[in-house]
Write a structure and sequence with these properties.
975 residues; alpha+beta; 6-stranded mixed sheet; globular
C-alpha cells in the first residue's frame, strides 16, 4: 500500500508540474483561436501567432546575434534549433525559460508599459529575447545526462546566479535591474533575498545575482566562469553539475568565501557613496502614517484634503488595497477597493472621483488593462474601457474628459475620452516601436506632457501640442525622468529621475526651462503629489516616498524649497569598477530587422513538438511478494496544448500488485480536457469500523471550464464535468462481515457522469492553510450512473455545499459551513452518504490530479458510530483563535510544524432513512461540540492542516460520558 500511495503522490507532482509549462500556466486560460506559425533561422525555431508576424524579422535578428555572443562567451553550441515562443495574448511584462528538452523560452510581446518597469535604452524584444536566451545557454552549459534528475541530486542552477548570469551576459548595470534595490539592502544590512521581509526581495534577488556575476568575472575572469559551468561531478558513472561543488573547485573557500568577499566589497562601495549623499533625516520632517507596509502609489486630491493610497497590507497579508485618507490630524481611513489595481491613480478635477487601471479579463479571456473610475462618496466602481489595453488615466483639459495611454501592438498612444458621450479621440499616432507613459495636461502650455521612449532608445520628457502635433523635448536623453506632478499653480512640475541609479526628485519651471534638484537621497525618493494645503500656513509641500529599509516604505511631506546636500559622488575605482564589467561579447542595443535570416516558414503542429520532460525508473521493495520497478515519466508541449504524465510499478514478486496511471491533458480548446486510464487504488476511506481501499480499473474524461463571469478580485470559478467508466474492486472484502447497517462492499462496473460548478473567494494570507482570515465559496455537484456500457449500477447524487468566514474581533474568526446531499437509486453500498465513524483524510488537491484519493463524508465530532442513509444535511460552526504563529520545529529536515490555532466548534447533522444496527430505518440527528488544536504541517514542501481535538454530544457536554478524542488531517475550508 505504501508503494501505491507513493505512486499517487508522484502522479500529483508530475501532472501539476507539467501543467505549469505554457503561457496558460500564468494567464489561466487556453487561447484556441490563435493560429500558430513557425519561422526558422539558422539556430532557432520561432513560434508565434500569425497576427504578430511583423515582428519576426526583428526577433530573428536579435536571436541570431544573441546566439553568436552567448555561444562565444560561454563556449556552448546547440546541435538542434532552440525554440522561442512569442505571444501577445496578454499584457504580461514577462518571459520565462524552461530547461525541459534542453531548453525553450516563452515571451509576451507587443507591450507598452515595460518602458516604465525597466530603464535603459534597450527595447523590449532586444532585452527579453537576449535575457531568456541567456538562461537557455546557461541550461545547456550545465546540462547532464541525468536530465531533470540533476535538480534532485544537486543544485545546478541557484536562482540568483541563473538570473545574474542572464543579466551579465545580455544587459548593462542600471537602476531598475539592480542598483536601487541592492544599495538599500546593503545599507539596511539585509542583502538576503530569502528572508521574507520585503516586497523588494524579488528585485533584490536579480540585483544580487547581477552584481555577483560582474564582481566574480572582474576578479577571476570570464574564463573562470566558463570553467565553473563546465565542472562536473560523477555519480554511478554519470556526470552531473552542482553549483557549490563547482565553486569549491573554481574559488578557494567556495561560494561562502566568495559571498563574504562580495558582501564586504559592496559595503565599501555603497557606504562610501552614502557618505556623499543625503539620508531621510535630512528631509527635516517626520514620516506620515498611512495604511499598509508597502506603497504602490499615492495621489493627492486637487484641494489637498484627501490622499488615495494603494498599498500592500503586509507580506503576511499581501492584499493590494486602495484607501482614501483624510489629510488632516485624524488621518481617518476608508478602504474602497482591492485587487489588481495598477500604480496609476489620478483624481478628477473636482475630487469626487478617482481614476486608475486594472488588469482584468478582456476579449477572449486575455489579461488586459482597462480604465476604471471610482466614486469617492459611494465607493461605486465603473469600468470605462473594455479590452482597450489602456493604462495611466489622467484628468483631461475639460472636467468631463480623461486621457489615457493605449497599447497598440506595442506602441503607446494617447487618447482622450468624453465621459458624457463616451466618444474617444486620438491625440498621438506613434508607430515604429515607441512607448509612452505618465501623461499630464499642462494648462500653461495647453499641451500634454508624456515620458517618451522612442525607437532609438531615447527617453525624454516631451510636451505634445494636441492641435498641431508639435513636440518639445524638455530634458537630456540620459536623465530618465518620469512620474510627473504639477505644482498647485501649474507653473512647475516635480518628477522622479533615475539619473542617480536610484530615484530622486527634481523640479522643472515651465516658464524659465530651469531644472532644480529637490532630493539627493542615497536610498532614493519618489514624488507622488504636490499641495499647498497641508498646514495652517498654506505652505507648499511635496509628497515623497523614501525609505532606508527594505522592510517598509515611508512617505513624507517635503518642502520644495529645501537646500540639497551635494557631495562629489566619487568612490575609488577599485570598488566601483564592477558596475561597468561586461561580458566579452556584448549584444548590440539596437538591432535592425533582417528578414533574410528566416530560412523557412510553416504552420506549427503542437503534437510534433511534444517534448520529453523526465523519466525516472527506480527499484522498490515492499515485501517478499511486492518488489520490482517503480517509474514516472512526463512529456509536454511548450504551449501546454498536449501533456502526458504516467507513473506506475511492475511488481516482479506478484504481477497482481502492479499498478499504473496514464493521464493526457489537452488544452487545444477553451476548456482543459483530461483523459486518464488507470489500474490503481483510487479511493480510501473509513467504512463502518474499517478502512476500505478500492481498486479502480478503467478510465475517465474530465472537462474544466474557467468562467470569466465568476472572476473578481481574489475570486475565481469554473464549471466541471467528468465521464467515468470503471471497475470498482474493494480490497480485503472478506474483512467486512456485512450487516444491515454496514453491508459488505460490492464489486461492480460503473459508468457515471458528474457535472458541477465552484466559485471561491479567498484573499492571500500567510496562514490560509490553518487560519483563513476571510473567504467564501459555493460548490454544486450532480452525479448520475446508468446501466450502460456493461455498467451494473444506476443512481443519482446531488451535493451542494457552501462556507463563509466571518470577522468578529481582531484576528479571531467564525467559520460557517453547510452541506446538503441526496441520493436516488441503488449506488454501490460502500458509496454511501451519511456520517463516517472516523475522520477521513481531506486534502485540497489541484484540479489537474485525475483521481479522488479520499472519500469526503462528513463526521459529527463527538460521535463514533457509522451511519448511512439517502439524504444528509450537515452544518458546522467553529470559533477559531490564532494561538502560535509557528512552532519553529523541523523534523529530519522534511517535516515542518508551523502556525497553530485553537477552535471551539459545534457540528450538527441529520440523516434521513438511516440504517440502524437493529435493522430498522429512520431519521438520525446528531449534535456534537468540543475544542480542537490545529497545526500547519509541511511535508517535503506540501503544506496541509492536521489537528487533535476532543468532543462530546452536545446534550452530554461536560458530563462523565466518554469523550471523543481524535486526530485528523483535514483542510480548514472544504474546497
Amino acid at each position: 500500500m505504501k508503494t501505491v500511495i507513493s505512486l499517487l503522490l508522484l502522479l500529483l507532482v508530475i501532472t501539476v508540474d507539467l501543467s505549469a509549462q505554457g503561457f496558460n500556466s500564468l494567464n489561466g486560460r487556453n487561447h484556441p483561436y490563435l493560429n500558430w506559425q513557425v519561422a526558422e533561422t539558422e539556430h532557432f525555431r520561432i513560434i508565434y501567432p500569425d497576427r504578430i508576424s511583423n515582428i519576426i524579422p526583428q526577433a530573428s535578428a536579435i536571436a541570431e546575434e544573441s546566439y553568436a555572443a552567448l555561444s562565444a562567451n560561454l563556449e556552448v553550441d546547440f546541435s538542434k534549433k532552440v525554440r522561442i515562443y512569442l505571444s501577445d495574448e496578454d499584457e504580461i511584462v514577462n518571459g520565462f525559460a524552461n530547461p525541459i528538452g534542453k531548453g525553450y523560452t516563452a515571451i509576451w510581446v507587443n507591450l507598452n508599459d515595460y518602458a516604465e518597469t525597466k530603464t535603459g535604452s534597450e527595447k523590449w524584444l532586444r532585452k527579453v529575447i537576449a535575457h531568456e536566451l541567456g538562461h537557455i545557454f546557461h541550461f545547456k552549459a550545465v546540462w547532464s545526462d541525468f536530465g531533470l534528475l540533476n535538480y534532485v541530486i544537486a543544485d545546478p542552477l541557484p536562482r540568483h546566479w541563473t538570473e545574474g548570469l542572464a543579466q551579465y551576459q545580455t544587459e548593462y548595470w542600471d537602476s531598475q535591474r539592480g542598483d536601487r534595490w541592492l544599495r538599500k539592502a546593503i545599507f539596511d544590512s539585509r542583502p538576503g533575498f530569502n528572508d521574507g521581509q520585503s516586497i523588494e526581495n524579488g528585485r533584490l534577488m536579480y540585483a544580487v545575482g547581477n552584481s555577483q556575476l560582474r564582481y566574480f568575472t572582474e576578479k577571476y575572469g570570464d574564463s573562470t566562469l566558463v570553467n565553473l559551468l563546465s565542472h562536473r561531478d560523477d555519480f554511478l558513472g554519470i556526470e552531473y553539475h552542482d553549483f557549490n561543488s563547482a565553486f569549491d573547485d573554481a574559488v578557494e573557500g567556495g561560494y561562502q568565501s566568495f559571498y563574504e568577499d562580495w558582501r564586504k566589497h559592496m559595503n565599501v562601495y555603497y557606504n562610501t557613496l552614502a557618505s556623499q549623499m543625503e539620508r531621510t533625516d535630512s528631509l527635516d520632517t517626520e514620516p506620515i502614517s498611512l495604511p499598509g507596509q508597502f506603497y504602490y502609489d499615492v495621489a493627492v486630491s486637487p484641494d489637498g484634503s484627501q490622499l488615495a493610497v494603494l498599498s500592500l497590507q503586509s507580506l503576511a497579508r499581501p492584499v493590494r488595497s486602495l484607501h482614501i485618507i483624510q489629510n488632516d490630524s485624524t488621518r481617518s481611513s476608508r478602504k474602497i477597493a482591492e485587487g489588481s489595481i495598477n500604480s496609476d491613480l489620478a483624481w478628477s478635477s473636482d475630487g469626487s472621483a478617482l481614476y486608475y487601471s486594472r488588469t482584468v479579463r478582456g476579449v477572449n479571456s486575455s489579461l488586459l488593462n482597462d480604465i476604471f473610475t471610482l466614486d469617492i462618496e459611494s465607493g461605486k466602481e465603473e469600468q470605462l474601457t473594455h479590452s482597450r489595453r489602456a493604462k495611466y488615466p489622467t484628468q483631461g483639459p475639460l472636467k468631463n474628459t480623461i486621457a489615457y495611454i493605449v497599447n497598440e501592438d506595442g506602441n503607446g498612444n494617447l487618447f482622450q475620452l468624453d465621459l458624457e458621450t463616451g466618444e474617444e479621440n486620438r491625440i498621438t499616432n506613434y508607430q515604429n516601436d515607441i512607448q509612452i507613459f505618465h501623461p499630464l495636461w499642462v494648462k500653461s502650455d495647453q499641451s500634454w506632457l508624456i515620458h517618451k521612449f522612442d525607437e532609438n532608445g531615447n527617453r525624454n520628457m516631451v510636451l505634445v501640442d494636441p492641435l498641431s502635433g508639435n513636440e518639445t523635448v524638455l530634458d537630456r536623453n540620459d536623465t530618465d525622468n518620469r512620474n510627473f506632478v504639477l505644482s498647485p499653480d501649474g507653473s512647475k512640475m516635480a518628477y522622479t529621475s533615475l539619473r542617480d541609479e536610484v530615484p530622486n526628485v527634481f523640479l522643472y519651471d515651465f516658464e524659465t526651462g530651469e531644472e532644480r534638484r529637490i532630493t539627493n537621497l542615497f536610498t532614493g525618493g519618489e514624488v507622488y503629489g504636490w499641495t499647498s494645503s497641508v498646514d495652517t500656513l498654506e505652505t507648499e509641500r511635496l509628497l515623497i516616498k523614501a525609505s532606508e529599509t527594505k522592510r517598509r516604505d515611508q512617505v513624507y511631506w517635503v518642502d520644495p524649497h529645501r537646500d540639497v546636500f551635494l557631495g562629489d559622488d566619487r568612490v575609488p575605482e577599485v570598488y566601483s569598477s564592477w558596475r561597468l564589467k561586461q561580458a566579452p561579447n556584448m549584444i548590440s542595443s539596437g538591432i535592425e530587422p533582417d528578414e533574410s535570416l528566416i530560412v523557412d516558414q510553416y504552420k506549427y503542429r503542437p503534437i510534433q513538438n511534444l517534448t520529453h520532460a523526465s523519466t525516472i525508473i527506480l527499484p522498490y521493495f515492499g515485501d517478499s511478494r511486492n518488489w520490482g520497478l517503480f517509474g514516472v515519466t512526463g512529456f509536454t508541449e511548450p504551449l501546454g496544448k498536449h501533456l502526458f504524465a504516467a507513473t506506475g510499478n511492475i511488481s516482479l514478486g506478484n504481477l497482481d500488485y502492479s499498478y499504473g496511471v496514464l493521464s493526457y491533458i489537452n488544452n487545444q480548446f477553451y476548456p482543459s480536457i483530461t483523459t486518464s486510464i488507470y489500474k490503481t487504488p483510487g479511493s480510501a476511506f473509513f467504512y463502518g469500523d474499517k478502512f476500505l481501499v478500492e481498486e479502480l480499473i478503467g478510465g475517465q474524461i474530465t472537462v474544466n471550464i474557467p468562467v470569466d463571469r465568476f472572476e473578481a478580485p481574489y475570486q475565481d470559478g469554473s464549471v466541471y464535468t467528468r465521464l467515468r467508466h470503471v471497475l470498482i474492486h474493494p480490497f480485503d472484502r472478506d474483512a467486512f462481515t456485512g450487516s444491515f447497517q454496514v453491508p459488505a462492499p460490492e464489486q461492480a462496473r460503473q459508468t457515471d457522469l458528474t457535472v458541477g460548478f465552484q466559485i471561491k473567494k479567498q484573499r492571500p494570507w500567510r496562514d490560509n492553510v490553518i487560519h483563513p482570515l476571510d473567504g467564501w465559496g459555493v460548490r454544486g455537484l450532480l452525479t448520475g450512473a446508468e446501466k450502460i456500457f456493461g455498467s451494473e449500477v444506476r443512481f443519482a447524487t446531488a451535493d451542494l455545499s457552501a462556507y463563509k468566514v466571518l470577522h468578529p474581533i481582531g484576528m479571531q474568526r467564525i467559520y460557517l459551513y453547510g452541506r446538503y446531499q441526496q441520493q436516488w437509486g441503488s449506488p454501490l453500498l460502500q458509496n454511501y452518504i451519511g456520517f463516517s465513524r472516523l475522520d477521513n483524510i481531506h486534502l485540497s488537491l489541484p484540479g489537474e490530479v485525475p483521481l479522488e484519493l479520499f472519500n469526503q463524508a462528513e463526521r459529527v465530532r463527538g460521535y463514533r458510530e457509522f451511519i448511512a442513509g439517502d439524504r444528509v444535511a450537515f452544518g458546522r460552526f467553529e470559533y477559531r483563535i490564532p494561538f502560535l504563529p509557528s512552532l519553529d520545529t523541523t523534523i529530519l529536515g522534511l517535516l515542518d510544524l508551523g502556525a497553530t490555532s485553537i477552535s471551539m466548534f459545534s457540528d450538527v447533522g441529520v440523516v434521513w432513512n438511516a440504517r440502524f444496527v437493529d435493522g430498522t430505518t429512520g431519521r438520525e440527528q446528531r449534535w456534537g461540540a468540543g475544542a480542537e488544536l490545529k497545526n500547519s504541517l509541511s511535508l517535503a514542501g506540501i503544506r496541509i492542516a492536521h489537528a487533535v481535538g476532543i468532543a462530546q454530544p452536545a446534550q452530554e457536554l461536560f458530563t462523565n460520558t466518554d469523550y471523543d478524542l481524535y486526530y485528523r488531517v483535514r483542510a480548514v475550508v472544504p474546497f
